[in-house]
Design brief:
- This protein is mostly helical.
- The chain has one domain.
- It is built from 15 helices and no strands.
- It has helices at residues 2-18, 26-47, 55-82, 85-92, 103-121, 125-147, 151-167, 169-178, 181-194, 199-215, 220-243, 252-268, 273-281, 283-300, 305-335.
- α1 crosses α15 (305-335) and α10 (199-215) packs parallel to α12.
- The longest helix has 31 residues, at 305-335.
Length: 336
C-alpha cells in the first residue's frame, strides 16, 4: 500500500514538473499515509511491551534519520551535477522547516511527539485519544495559518482518523463485513461527489470509502462490486467529458482518486502483492527523494513527458534501495 501511495504521489508531482494533466490528489495521498502511520502507532502501542520506553530511541529515529540521510544524499548528488550544495542542503534537509517537499515529515514528527507525550502522561485510553486529537487539530490549524496553506490541515485529518479507526476497528470491521458493502461504499461515494469542494468532509468520506473497499475479499461477489462501482465511475466521468459540462460533479480529481483505490485493490488480490510489500520497504525513501529526482530528470533530459516520468520512477527505485540500506545501518547502530 505504501509503495502504491509513493508511486501515485510521484505521478502527481511529475504532472506539475513536466506539465501534463493529472488530478490534484496530493493531499489525499499524504492523508492516507498519515492514516496508516497513526494506525501503526496504535497497533504497536497495544502489541509491544513497554513500547513508549523505546519510542524516542527507536520510533522517532526511524522517521528522522531517513529524512536527514535523504537531505545529505540530495545535497551531495546536486553538488556533483549542479554545484549548488548550499541551497539544496538548506531546502532539502529541513532547515526551512516547512520547505517543499519535506513538509509532511515535519508534520508527522509533530504528530509523533504529541502521540508520545500524551500516552506517556495519561492512562485513560479514551481521554488520551481525545487529547491527542485536539492537540493535533490545534497544531494543524497553527501550521496552516503560519504557512497560509490548508494542505497541512487537510492531510493531517488522516492521522486523527487512523488513531480512532484502530481503537474501534473491531466494531468497524464487524459493521463492514456484516453489512452489504454497497451500504457503505455508495453513501461514501455520494459524499465524495456532493462535498468535493469541502475538503474536510471529502477527506473523511474518502477514507471511509477506502477502508470499505479494502475490506472486500477475493470472492466473485466482491470483485463484481468493485467492477460495478468502477464501471459507474467511468460512465459518469466519460459522460461528463463528452457532454463538456462545467460541473465539478464528475471532476477528473474525484475520478482519479476513486479509480486509484480500485487499481490498488485489484493489485492487492493478484500475485503482485508480494512485490508491493517489497516496494513498501523503500516507500518512505521514495517519498523523501522523489521531488528532487523529478528536478534532476527535468534538468538533464528532454523527451516525452511520460517517458521522463518513467525514467524518474526507475532511477528513484535505484536510488531509494541503497539509501534505505544506509538508513538501516545507521538505525541499527543507534538502537544498539
Amino acid at each position: 500500500m505504501r509503495f502504491m501511495l509513493a508511486v501515485v504521489i510521484l505521478i502527481y508531482h511529475a504532472s506539475s514538473v513536466f506539465g501534463f494533466i493529472y488530478a490534484d490528489i496530493g493531499f489525499l495521498v499524504v492523508s492516507v499515509f498519515f492514516f496508516l502511520s497513526a494506525y501503526g502507532l496504535m497497533h504497536s502501542l497495544n502489541s509491544k511491551k513497554d513500547y513508549l520506553k523505546t519510542f524516542t530511541s527507536h520510533r522517532l529515529p526511524s522517521l528522522i534519520v531517513p529524512w536527514v540521510v535523504a537531505g545529505f544524499v540530495i545535497g551531495v548528488i546536486s553538488t556533483l551535477v549542479f554545484g549548488d550544495i548550499v541551497i539544496e542542503l538548506y531546502d532539502r534537509m529541513g532547515t526551512r522547516l516547512f520547505a517543499m517537499p519535506m513538509w509532511f515529515v515535519t508534520e508527522l514528527i509533530m504528530f509523533y511527539i504529541i502521540f508520545y507525550v500524551s500516552f506517556k502522561f495519561f492512562n485513560n485510553r479514551l481521554f488520551t485519544l481525545i487529547v491527542v486529537s485536539i492537540s493535533c487539530f490545534l497544531m494543524m490549524r497553527f501550521i496552516s495559518d503560519y504557512t497560509d496553506s490548508m494542505l497541512f490541515y487537510h492531510s493531517g485529518i488522516g492521522f486523527i482518523l487512523g488513531l480512532w479507526w484502530w481503537q474501534y476497528k473491531d466494531i468497524a470491521y464487524k459493521i463492514l463485513t456484516k453489512l452489504n458493502p454497497v451500504c457503505i461504499l455508495i453513501p461514501a461515494l455520494v459524499l465524495t461527489f456532493l462535498f468535493e469542494e469541502d475538503t474536510t468532509i471529502f477527506c473523511v468520506a474518502f477514507i471511509v470509502y477506502f477502508m470499505a473497499f479494502m475490506v472486500l475479499d477475493k470472492s466473485v461477489k466482491s470483485i463484481c462490486y468493485m467492477l460495478g462501482i468502477q464501471t459507474i465511475l467511468c460512465i459518469l466521468f466519460f459522460t461528463n467529458t463528452i457532454s463538456d459540462t462545467t460541473s465539478s460533479f464528475y471532476s477528473i480529481e474525484t475520478f482519479a482518486i476513486l479509480s486509484t483505490i480500485f487499481v490498488v485493490k485489484i493489485i492487492m488480490i493478484l500475485p503482485l502483492q508480494t512485490y508491493l510489500q517489497k516496494g513498501g520497504v523503500i516507500a518512505y525513501e521514495m517519498f523523501l527523494l522523489h521531488w528532487t529526482m523529478l528536478m534532476w530528470v527535468s534538468e538533464c533530459l528532454d523527451m516525452n513527458v511520460y517517458m521522463m516520468t518513467a525514467v524518474a520512477f526507475v532511477f528513484l527505485i535505484i536510488l531509494s534501495i541503497p539509501v534505505h540500506k544506509i538508513n538501516v545501518v545507521i538505525l541499527n547502530k543507534l538502537t544498539q
